[in-house]
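Duplicate of earlier report; Transcription factor E input re-posted below.
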Amino acid sequence: MINNPIVNDFLVQIVAPEDLKNIKAIIQALIDGIETDEAIHEKTDIKLNTVRKLLYKLHDASIATYKRNKDPETQWFTYTWKFDKEEYVKEVTDFYTERLKEREDLLDNLENNLYFVCCMEPEHFKGDYTESSEYEFYCPVCDYELEPYDAKKEKSLLKRRITIDKKNFKKFEDSIQE
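Output:
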């Protein structure tokens, strides 16, 4: 449920890529029923401040909730954390659905439109027929002619990414059922 490329991409939207390993360990600890930041720290050997920071990021993403209790003896607050599996599944599903739609729209756009690029530096300009005609098929950056853009590689890459995402999401759905 957490070892999936779709989940990785989703989690990187919540935390920096270098925190991916730690956030996954924290999620697993929460799934395993460990409820306090100190206990998660002890189980995972992640610095306590990092555990707390990442727990709050999970909370901000609505994936984890907490209850605050005051210790009558010490007057200190303790936080009991819970993993919200239902919200987690919803958020990952929403992320996947949005990304899939974006990729499918981009693919559809590439397949149904003619694009032009600068013949000298393709990075200068890439536009569809309408936009290119506004510049009279000359690059707005360097004034060289625009040439038709061969989108075969880009379309092939998008198709492959869509297929891989669908397969990975199916694995995610299957892991939820377990």
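The helical segments are 5-12, 20-31, 37-44, 48-60, 85-112, 129-134, 152-177.

Merging into the original ticket.
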